[in-house]
Amino acid sequence: MIFPMIINILILSSSAHLSTANSEITPRPFEKIYAFGDSYRYSDGPGSATGPSSFAYVSNLPYGQTFFHHPTNRYSDGRLVIDFVAELLSLPYLPPYLNATADKSSGVNFAVAGSTAIEHEFFVKNNLTRDITPESLGTQLSWFTEYLESQGCIDTKATPQKCRAVFDEALIRVGEIGANDYGYTVGSSVSDETIQELAIKRATDFLEILLYKGAKYVVVQGLPPTGCLTMAMYFFREDYRDNIGCVESVNKQSYSHNTIYQAKVEVLRKQFPDALIVYADYWNAYSTVIENAHNYGFKELYKVCCGSSGGKYNYDSSGPCGSPVSTHTTPPFQYLLSIKKKSQ
């Protein structure tokens, strides 16, 4: 499975930035993690009754089969990136915010599978609400604000001690966000340029608010090469490929998104010099794994091991992983893309 490989590369990259970003700050262990994003971060929550129809099957095998040996509502056959981060820091796996009875003393997962950077009202206005997740980064920010208030943290001026207790030893991980915004608008009259501008603006505003609230250690993750995902490979013609065998136009889109996003992150670094803000380059980490796939034991780069229809990619949007018509092969760790649903 790809996640352990990518997280190792991301950790090495992030560590290098952390060691040079501010030499006066002594590295310290984190006692909490607050995670935001989409299904690359989402874990342990119930299958969504309001999101894409494919999400209804996350409570079925083969989800979770290789590590937990049962479904855990993670969109993976095992663990997610955030699980590996927690393990690295010797912390328990993060409970979802909506789990009211969970122990949240070591952090909280606010991520939502299928989540968008842009607010749901935008998609409603453009008649794009069929089979999409209504939660966005704005939703996650509202939940986080509720959580802060439950901890007595109103803002850094009114309740400085309470806010320091929340943030001082906490790692904030903002996972990749925006891929679903592009995906939900494919084939519509909404341009990619509009999505790019709005998604980056929402993500940047989100980061700025977190920093104003008191975030000190922030890891921001960019988009992967989305043209390498099975859905893109399935829907675009074979002659639309780049040098790593993926859909060129879609990869250019996500690369451009990341370039602009990184520039915005750099502005925030200057605006908040007392915070450590690290950009986790998911694009190059993912590309490195693709380019060296056989060294990592992968035999299938684009075909999913859990899907339906067989064929070159074993992909059919009407038969997502976990559905009655889907099938899965073993061992899944030989597949770069272990499972597939319609949205991320």
From TrEMBL:
GO terms for molecular function: hydrolase activity, acting on ester bonds. InterPro entries: GDSL, SGNH_hydro_sf. Residues 1-21 form the signal peptide. Keywords: Glycoprotein, Signal. Pfam families: Lipase_GDSL. PANTHER family: LIPASE_HYDROLASE FAMILY PROTEIN, PUTATIVE, EXPRESSED-RELATED, ZINC FINGER FYVE DOMAIN CONTAINING PROTEIN. Belongs to the 'GDSL' lipolytic enzyme family. This is GDSL-like Lipase/Acylhydrolase superfamily protein. It comes from Heracleum sosnowskyi.
